[in-house]
Design a protein that fits this description.
The complex is a heterodimer of chains A (116) and B (115).
Chain A (H helix, E strand, L loop, with lengths): L2 E3 L4 E5 L4 E3 L2 E3 L5 E8 L6 E7 L7 E2 L2 E6 L4 E6 L8 E9 L8 E2 L3 E6 L1
Parallel strand pairs in A: 2-12
Antiparallel strand pairs in A: 1-4, 3-9, 5-6, 5-10, 7-8, 8-9, 10-11, 10-12
Chain B lengths: L3 E4 L2 E4 L5 E7 L5 E7 L5 E8 L5 E2 L10 E5 L2 E6 L8 E9 L5 E4 L3 E5 L1
Parallel strand pairs in B: 2-11
Antiparallel strand pairs in B: 1-3, 3-8, 4-5, 4-9, 5-6, 7-8, 9-10, 9-11
The chains are: A mainly beta (116), B mainly beta (115).
């Protein structure tokens, strides 16, 4: 069974600074997707960034980037120039690439605080 | 991305009653997913709803407790039956966005409190 582990229950970062959230996963599959979702107090799940396992290049989306280490099964999220609006729960998630719809497996989440 | 709406957004219910949650998508999708997020916890998949067939339930979830309907390609309902305080959670539906690397997008969720 696939598992996703987020070892940091809480993190804190000062505004304008950079923070990295950790995620590791366990799978025997070779082709899959990895995601970071953000859940603000509104509880809406918002996609932050997506990585295809077959791509060596790390995904980036504006201030958000990932460090994908396939051999180590590691998928960390870096937030640059942190803003107050980045404060939220962040969930790492895994999904097998099947060509059809399949479920997401989530980590336990990391609560990010952004301070002035 | 797909636009997903859910009704109700929140509700307070008495134990022993049932609540039906609706999920509407603005485009046709093959599968819809129902997740539960208990207080302070991560998301757990309840079931996958495929149009025209029975929903597929994950371990620990049964059809009698969480019956699901999927009458067409843009709509699904999840019923939480015979509720107890342990059912107090956020219930979210999600869909895969075709052509976007199988990314799943989520509705705004239904916050349920059972007294």
């Amino acid at each position: 069974a696939q598992t996703v582990t987020q070892s940091q229950p809480e993190m804190s970062v000062q505004e304008a600074e950079t923070v990295t959230l950790s995620c590791t996963y366990d799978t025997s599959e070779s082709d899959y997707y990895l995601f970071w979702y953000k859940q603000p107090p509104s509880r809406q799940m918002i996609l932050v960034i997506r990585q295809e396992a077959y791509k060596q290049q790390n995904a980036t989306e504006n201030r958000f980037s990932v460090n994908f280490q396939k051999a180590a099964k590691s998928f960390s999220l870096k937030i640059s120039d942190s803003q107050l609006g980045d404060a939220a729960m962040y969930f790492c998630a895994y999904k097998i690439r099947t060509g059809t719809a399949s479920k997401l497996t989530f980590g336990t989440g990391t609560r990010l605080q952004v301070t002035l | 991305s797909a636009v997903i709406s859910q009704k109700p957004s929140r509700d307070i219910c008495q134990r022993g009653t049932s609540l039906t949650i609706q999920c509407q998508v603005d485009s046709q999708v093959t599968m819809m997913f129902w997740y539960r997020q208990q207080p302070g916890q991560s998301l757990t998949l309840i079931a996958t709803a495929n149009q025209g067939s029975e929903a597929t339930y994950e371990s620990g979830f049964v059809i009698d407790k969480f019956p699901i309907s999927r009458p067409n390609l843009t709509f699904s309902t999840l019923t939480v039956s015979n509720m107890s305080p342990e059912d107090s959670s956020i219930y979210l539906c999600s869909v895969d966005q075709a052509g976007v690397g199988e990314t799943q997008y989520f509705g705004p969720g239904t916050r349920l409190l059972v007294l």
